[in-house]
Design brief:
Helices cover about 35% and strands about 20% of the residues.
C-alpha cells in the first residue's frame, strides 16, 4: 500500500488556519522509512505576537464562560478523539516511531485525560475554613492565570499536549501551543480535535517552529503569564531563567534516570517482562524509561541470563507491524546521541553484553534503528548516571537493599522508580526511601494513571505536578476571600479573645 502524500499545514491563530507570507517551512519525516509526512510553518516572532494577541483578546470571554460549559467542550473533544483514535495512532507511529500498540496507548491516554479534566469543570475546588471571628466566612476560589504557553516534546506527541491544553482550558486560560518540530503533524491532529469540538476563536492557538524563535518569543512576551514546558534539562533551565526575569510561573517536567531494583526474593519472570517494557518500550525514549536495573547479587547472574536470552527473540522493525516489539529512535539526532553514549560506555570499560550498534540492511537502512543494548557497569559511570533517552540499559550489581537504594538515589534525577520484591515490609520501606516522584512496586518505571499526579524531584523538574487533580494547580491562581457579616469592624489577632 502506498504511503499517504505529504500534507501542508499552517498556523492556527484566532480560530483560523493561516499561512503567513514570507515564512520558511520545515518537514517532518517517518523515522522508520525516511518519508516526508508533512510541511509546516517556521514561525517568526511576529507570528508568535499575533497568536499571543489573539489569546489575550479571547481570554476574558473564556474566563467568563462557566467552568462546566468549558468542561462540556472538553468532553466533546474527547469524544471526537475517540472516534479518530486509530487514524491518529497511526500518525503517532508514523511520525514518532513508537510501535502501533503504544501509538494507540498514547492517544488513549489523551482521551482519558481530556475526559478527566472535563469533570474538573464541575469541581475546580477551593476550600472553606472556619474563621476565628464571629459572623465571618472564609474561603478560597481558583481563577485562571491568563494566557499560558504550552511547550511540548516529541515522545508522547498527543498525550503530553493534552495534559497541558485540557487542564489549561478547563481552568479558563487561553493557550498558545508550541509543539516539538519533529512531531508537528501529531500536534496538528490535536489542535483539529479542539477546533472541531468548538473551542472559541483565540482560546487555543498553534504556532510551529524553532524553540530558539517561537519558544523565546513566548517566554519573552509579558502577556504570557505562565509557561508549561516538558523537555530536556538544559532547555528547561533556560526557559526557567528567562521566565524568572518577568516573574512568570514556569512549570518544568524534565529528565529521568529511572531505576528498577530487583531483590533476591523477586518474581524474576514478572521483573523480566517489566524491565523489557520499561527499558525498550518507545525505544527507551520515555522520561520514565528504565535505564538502570539494580540487581541483588544473589539473582544477578540468573536474571541477566534471562534478559539476554529473551532479547534473542526480541523483534525490532516496522512499528506499524503489530508483531514488532520496538521501532526506531525518533530522529537522526537521537540516533547520533544514543550511539555516542554507547561509545562512551565502551570507553568507560562497561561490559557490552548485547546490541551496541545501528541496525543495517534491508528496511533498516531507511530508518534510525538501534539494537536493544545492555551494559554491565559499575555505579558512577556516565552511562549509569546520565540520561541517554534510547534503548540502552545499564545493569548494576549490589549486595543488599541498603546499597540498592543508595545506587538508585545517587543520580541528578528523580522521576520514576521501581522495586520488585515479595517482602511487604521492604516494599513499604522503598516507598519512603526512593527519591522519586513516582514509585512502583512489582511493576516497571512507567508513568502515572491520568487521575494521579505526574512529576519528580531534583533535576526532573521544579516541583509541580501534571495530571490528576494537581493539574489544575499549574493553571490557576488561588484567591482568598473573607466575607464579614458582623456589621462591625473586627480585627483578627487584635480584638480581645
Amino acid at each position: 500500500m502506498s504511503a499517504p502524500a505529504p500534507t501542508e499545514h499552517g498556523l492556527f491563530v484566532d480560530g483560523k488556519w493561516v499561512l503567513p507570507a514570507g515564512t520558511g517551512r520545515f518537514s517532518t519525516r517517518n523515522p522508520a522509512t525516511g518519508e516526508v509526512l508533512g510541511t509546516f510553518v517556521s514561525a517568526r516572532p511576529a507570528d508568535v505576537e499575533a497568536a499571543v494577541t489573539a489569546a489575550s483578546k479571547a481570554f476574558p470571554g473564556w474566563k467568563e464562560t462557566p467552568a462546566p460549559k468549558r468542561g462540556e467542550i472538553l468532553l466533546k473533544a474527547a469524544e471526537i478523539l475517540r472516534g479518530r483514535k486509530e487514524s491518529v495512532a497511526r500518525v503517532v507511529t508514523r511520525e514518532m516511531g513508537k510501535v502501533i500498540a503504544e501509538g494507540r496507548g498514547d492517544v488513549q491516554e489523551a482521551i482519558d485525560f481530556i475526559e478527566y479534566m472535563a469533570g474538573e469543570g464541575r469541581r475546580l475546588a477551593g476550600e472553606t475554613v472556619p474563621s476565628e471571628l464571629h459572623h465571618k466566612f472564609c474561603l478560597t476560589i481558583r481563577q485562571p492565570k491568563g494566557v499560558v504557553a504550552c511547550i511540548t516534546p516529541w515522545n508522547f506527541p498527543t498525550a503530553i499536549p493534552n495534559w497541558k491544553i485540557a487542564a489549561a482550558l478547563v481552568c479558563g486560560n487561553s493557550v498558545v501551543f508550541k509543539p516539538a518540530s519533529n512531531t508537528a503533524l501529531c500536534a496538528y491532529e490535536v489542535v483539529k480535535v479542539y477546533e472541531d469540538a468548538g473551542v472559541p476563536p483565540g482560546v487555543l492557538n498553534f504556532v510551529t517552529g524553532a524553540g530558539s524563535v517561537v519558544g523565546d518569543a513566548l517566554v519573552g512576551d509579558p502577556r504570557v503569564r505562565a509557561i508549561s514546558f516538558t523537555g530536556g534539562v538544559e532547555a528547561g533551565r533556560e526557559v526557567y531563567v528567562k521566565g524568572a526575569r518577568q516573574l512568570k510561573m514556569v512549570h518544568l517536567e524534565l529528565g529521568g534516570k529511572n531505576p528498577v531494583i530487583v531483590m533476591d526474593d523477586a518474581d524474576l519472570h514478572l521483573a523480566l517482562e517489566g524491565v523489557l517494557f520499561g527499558a525498550f518500550g518507545t525505544s527507551g525514549q520515555r522520561c520514565t524509561a528504565t535505564s538502570r536495573v539494580v540487581l541483588h547479587e544473589k539473582v544477578y547472574d540468573e536474571f541477566l541470563g534471562m534478559l539476554l536470552e529473551r532479547l534473542k527473540t526480541f523483534r525490532v522493525g516496522d512499528p506499524l507491524d503489530p508483531s514488532t516489539e520496538m521501532g526506531p529512535v525518533a530522529s537522526a539526532d537521537q540516533e547520533k546521541k544514543v550511539l555516542e553514549y554507547i561509545d562512551i560506555g565502551q570507553k568507560e570499560g562497561a561490559r557490552l553484553r548485547v546490541g551496541g550498534h545501528k541496525l543495517t540492511g534491508g528496511a533498516y537502512d531507511r530508518g534510525h534503528f538501534i539494537s536493544p543494548t545492555i551494559f554491565e557497569t559499575r555505579h558512577g559511570t556516565r552511562i549509569s548516571k546520565e540520561e541517554i533517552f534510547g534503548p540502552v540499559l545499564s545493569v548494576i550489581k549490589v549486595h543488599d537493599y541498603e546499597e540498592a537504594v543508595r545506587v538508585a538515589n545517587d543520580v541528578d534525577y528523580g522521576l520514576s522508580s521501581s522495586i520488585y520484591t515479595r517482602d511487604v515490609n521492604r516494599a513499604f520501606r522503598a516507598v519512603g526511601d526512593l527519591e522519586a516522584g513516582i514509585t512502583y512496586v512489582n511493576a516497571p518505571t512507567i508513568g502515572a494513571e491520568v487521575q494521579l499526579p505526574f512529576g519528580g524531584v531534583k533535576n526532573t523538574g521544579n516541583g509541580g505536578r501534571e495530571a490528576g487533580s494537581a493539574a489544575i494547580e499549574e493553571f490557576t491562581e488561588i484567591k482568598t476571600v473573607f466575607i464579614d457579616f458582623s456589621a462591625r469592624l473586627q480585627k483578627a489577632q487584635i480584638d480581645p479573645r
